[in-house]
Design a protein that fits this description.
alpha+beta; two-stranded antiparallel sheet
Length: 299
């Protein structure tokens, strides 16, 4: 099958590391890994689109092929291209980060194991917000289970070759849901309210990625984002990392990050606030990659 478009990959790139990261949840519904290919379904301009993403190591390219019968417009092609580029952070040159990390007392310990890993993001703002809000103050496994239930309740499907593929729900669909429908998914009362409020804001165009991308630093972006009910500093920083791709985002109170740094430094105690602020200054605009690499070093 002929590819609909091809994207070049940067010099520092590992498809194997990306696939390993994406396989962390064997029951993931938002995409499916088939061998060494990724299949993901979307709704674009009202049309269901199922695409297959494949890496070609000899050519150093990623091809994207639309599998179902649909008229492929230029807008569909452009939106898919933008999504894949953001998903795997293909526009980011990591050479400066690697030069810094090779001499950093903490990062040099994780660099070899993570070599070539891109910051695999969540390009869709609504999906990113749902994942981060659902995951607040609960175990990862429970969060994954809630996410699956959320997709099955509000998502659409597309059938291809005797298989069913799920499409992550849109803010417009969720905005029309009742609070009880969200509570039935075992979400807390507060989280149900947060998701309904955010769904309404995104569906009406009052909350967009472009709004948060206009800020030059994460402090200003964080301040703007935390004005939204249900979004605290931890959630805001995770969104700024995985969706907005704000390089200096730094969830400094994240338990996994604190435990990771403590382990890497072979310390008897978690790093202090002062220590974390020093690391934030040291890592600068590479904070997001530093955090992502430390998180994944232990998984």
């Amino acid at each position: 099958m002929r590819a609909d478009f091809v994207l070049p990959v940067p010099a520092i790139f590992s498809w194997a590391k990306i696939l390993k990261y994406l396989r962390r949840d064997p029951n993931e519904l938002a995409y499916r890994i088939v061998g060494r290919r990724i299949r993901r379904a979307f709704v674009i301009d009202g049309k269901k689109v199922l695409c297959e993403i494949m890496y070609h190591p000899r050519l150093k390219t990623i091809s994207v092929t639309i599998l179902n019968q649909v008229q492929v417009t230029e807008n569909i092609r452009q939106q898919l291209q933008d999504f894949v580029t953001e998903w795997f952070d293909l526009d980011q040159d990591l050479s400066t980060f690697y030069e810094m990390a090779q001499t950093d007392p903490i990062l040099k310990k994780v660099l070899k194991k993570q070599a070539g890993l891109r910051l695999v993001g969540i390009p869709d703002l609504f999906e990113a917000l749902v994942w981060e809000i659902v995951g607040q103050e609960i175990t990862v496994n429970f969060a994954l289970s809630l996410k699956q239930n959320f997709i099955k309740r509000f998502g659409q499907t597309i059938d291809f070759q005797d298989s069913t593929y799920w499409i992550f729900p849109s803010a417009e669909i969720v905005a029309e849901a009742s609070k009880q429908e969200l509570l039935d998914l075992k979400l807390t009362n507060h989280k149900a309210e947060y998701l309904l409020d955010i769904s309404s804001k995104i569906a009406s165009g009052n909350m967009t990625k472009q709004e948060y991308r206009k800020y030059d630093n994460f402090e200003d972006a964080e301040k703007a984002m935390t004005k939204i009910r249900g979004i605290g500093p931890w959630t805001a920083n995770c969104i700024l990392m995985c969706c907005i791709k704000q390089g200096d985002a730094f969830p400094m109170n994240d338990v996994g990050l604190l435990n990771g740094i403590q382990t890497l430094e072979k310390s008897n105690q978690k790093p202090s606030k002062e220590k974390m602020l020093q690391l934030k200054k040291r890592w600068g605009n590479w904070c997001s990659y530093a955090v992502f690499y430390i998180w994944n070093y232990f998984y």
